[in-house]
Specification:
alpha+beta, about 30% helix, 18 strands, 7-stranded mixed β-sheet, 6-stranded mixed β-sheet
C-alpha cells in the first residue's frame, strides 16, 4: 500500500526536569561497547476498530499529541541518556538536548493497511533517515520517536533507539513507561523507573582492540545480498505439534519452550533451503547465534529494569548433513545446550576489573569457536516474553508490533540470514520475521511442513483476538 504522508511537526522534546550534574556523563558498559552500532526501530499499531471509516477529529489529534509530548518529557527525565547526544564511542553526554519527536499524518486507513502490511509501508512510520548501521558520530541523537495518525482514527507509535545504548528490554521499559505516563496523566509507575546500577558491574575497556569486539566478528560474518523478508506465524496448536515431535522418543526433563521449539524448526528449514547451494558439501558448518537476556542469567538476577545492553549471542553449530527425521531433535539439543551454557558463571566472568579477560574467554572459547568464517550462519533475536503487547497509551493494547529495519528489496539494508521472533498478541504463538537472500526462498517455499504449520505473511487481524 502506498503511504501518503504529511509531516505535521518535528520537535525536540526535552526532559521535564534537568539531569543532575553527577549523571551528566553516561559511560557505556562493556556489553554496550561490543554491541553492533545500529538503531533499533519499533512500531506499535493501534487501529480504531470501532470507527474505521470516519475521519479522525483534528481537535482530538491535537489533544493526543500534547498528552504524548508531556508524558514523553516526563519519561525522558528518567531515561535521561535518551535525551542526550553521543560524546564519543564510549560515552553519552546527558545534556538534556532532548529527543526528536516527529508527528505525521497519513491519508490512509490503518485497518486497511493491517489487512496486508508490507515492510516498505512500515518503514514510512519511522523517521527513516535514522535507521543507520554505522558507528555513531559525536553529537548524534540517541532516540527518535514518531507519532503517526491515520484518517480513520488509528495511531501508530514508533521508536528508533541506538543499540549502543539500549537493548530490547530497555526499549520496552522506555516505551512502557512513556505509555504509563500518558495513560495516567502523571509519572510512570514506580516499577518502570530504570535501574542504572547493574551496568556498572561491566566497566568498558577503552583500550580494547577492534578485533576483540564481538561486533567486529559478526560484522565480518554477516552475509550480504538482495534481501527479502517473510513473516511466519506459528499459533499455539502448531507449536504444540512441533513440541510433541520433540518429546515423542526422548522426553525432556524440562518441556521445550515456544522459542526453543520454533528456533529448532526454523533452523532445520534453513538448512534444508541451503542444501542446493552447498552442492552436497556435508563438511560445511551451519551455525546459529541466538540472543540471550543476561539479566535473567545472573545470580542473583539483575532487575528487568536494568538500563543498557545485557545481551549475549549464544552460538551453536552442526555439520551441514542431509536433513533427516531426527534433525529437529538434534538441533533442539544444540539450542538448549548453547543457551543453558550462558549461565551465572558465564555472566560473572565479565564483571568488575577482570571482566575484560572473562569477556575474551567467553568470546573466543565459547562463542566464536562455533562460528567459522566460511560457515552458513543464521542470526536470531528473540523479543518473546518481554511484554510489548501490554504497552497501552490509554487507548488499548496494540493490535500488531513490528520491526522494520529489514526486508527491503534493495541493498541499502544488505544483511541477510536474520530471524526475529516476537510473541503473537495472545502470547501463545510466535511471529517469526525471516530475512534471507531472495534466491533462498525458492527452496524455502518448497518445504511443505513449514506451510502446513505456519501462516505466511498473514494479516495481524487474522492472528490476534478481537479487542
Amino acid at each position: 500500500m502506498k503511504m501518503e504522508v504529511e509531516i505535521i511537526s518535528r520537535e525536540i522534546i526535552k526532559p521535564s526536569s534537568p539531569t543532575p550534574l553527577n549523571k551528566r556523563t553516561h559511560k557505556i558498559s562493556l556489553l554496550d561497547q561490543i554491541t553492533l552500532p545500529f538503531f533499533v526501530p519499533l512500531v506499535l499499531y493501534y487501529p480504531n476498530l470501532e470507527n474505521s471509516n470516519s475521519n479522525s477529529n483534528t481537535n482530538n489529534t491535537d489533544q493526543t499529541t500534547q498528552i504524548l509530548k508531556k508524558s514523553l518529557s516526563t519519561t525522558l527525565s528518567l531515561f535521561y541518556p535518551f535525551a542526550g547526544r553521543f560524546k564519543d564511542t564510549l560515552s553519552v553526554d546527558c545534556n538534556d538536548q532532548g529527543a526528536l519527536l516527529v508527528v505525521a499524518k497519513f491519508n490512509n486507513s490503518l485497518s486497511d493497511f493491517l489487512k496486508r502490511p508490507d515492510p516498505e509501508g512500515c518503514r514510512a512510520h519511522i523517521p527513516d533517515d535514522h535507521v543507520t548501521h554505522g558507528v555513531p558520530s559525536p553529537g548524534s541523537n540517541i532516540a527518535v520517536l514518531q507519532v503517526n495518525y491515520f484518517h480513520c482514527g488509528g495511531i501508530a507509535i514508533a521508536s528508533c533507539i541506538s543499540h549502543k545504548v539500549a537493548d530490547a528490554v530497555t526499549i520496552y521499559s522506555f516505551m512502557k513507561a512513556w505509555a504509563s505516563a500518558a495513560a495516567r496523566g502523571s509519572s510512570p509507575e514506580a516499577r518502570l523507573i530504570p535501574d542504572y546500577t547493574a551496568r556498572s558491574f561491566f566497566p568498558h575497556n577503552e583500550f580494547m582492540p577492534v578485533e576483540d569486539e564481538f561486533s567486529f566478528h559478526v560484522g565480518r560474518q554477516f552475509k550480504v545480498g538482495r534481501t527479502m523478508m517473510r513473516r511466519y506465524v506459528f499459533e499455539s496448536p502448531a507449536i504444540s505439534e512441533l513440541r510433541a515431535h520433540l518429546l515423542s522418543s526422548s522426553p525432556s526433563p524440562r518441556r521445550p519452550s515456544r522459542v526453543e521449539t520454533v528456533t529448532a524448526f526454523l533452523w532445520k528449514c534453513y538448512m534444508v533451503a541451503l542444501e542446493k547451494f552447498n552442492a552436497g558439501d556435508n563438511n560445511k558448518v551451519n551455525y546459529v547465534t541466538h540472543s540471550v537476556n543476561l539479566r535473567r542469567k545472573a545470580d542473583p538476577p539483575f532487575p528487568e529494569s536494568s538500563f543498557g545492553n545485557f545481551v549475549w549471542p549464544a552460538a551453536m553449530s552442526t555439520l551441514n548433513d542431509h536433513p533427516h527425521a531426527d534433525m529437529m531433535k538434534h538441533l533442539f539439543s544444540k539450542v538448549r545446550s548453547a543457551i543453558s551454557n550462558v549461565d551465572a558463571d558465564f555472566v560473572k566472568r565479565m564483571q568488575d576489573k577482570e571482566g575484560y579477560s572473562g569477556y575474551c574467554k567467553n568470546l573466543y572459547e565459547e562463542t566464536l569457536n562455533q562460528m567459522p568464517e566460511n560457515g552458513d550462519g543464521l542470526h536470531i533475536t528473540s523479543w518473546c516474553n518481554f511484554g510489548f503487547y501490554r504497552i497501552d497509551f490509554g487507548w488499548g493494547k496494540p493490535t500488531w508490533i513490528t520491526k522494520c529495519d529489514v526486508g527491503r528489496n534493495t541493498t541499502d539494508v544488505p544483511f541477510v540470514n536474520l530471524l526475529w521472533l516476537m510473541d503473537t498478541r495472545d502470547g501463545d504463538g510466535i511471529e517469526a520475521c525471516l530475512v534471507m537472500d531472495q534466491r533462498y526462498y525458492a527452496e524455502f517455499d518448497k518445504i511443505q511442513e513449514l506451510t502446513h504449520l505456519a501462516s505466511v505473511d498473514p494479516s495481524p487481524f487474522d492472528i490476534c483476538p478481537k479487542q
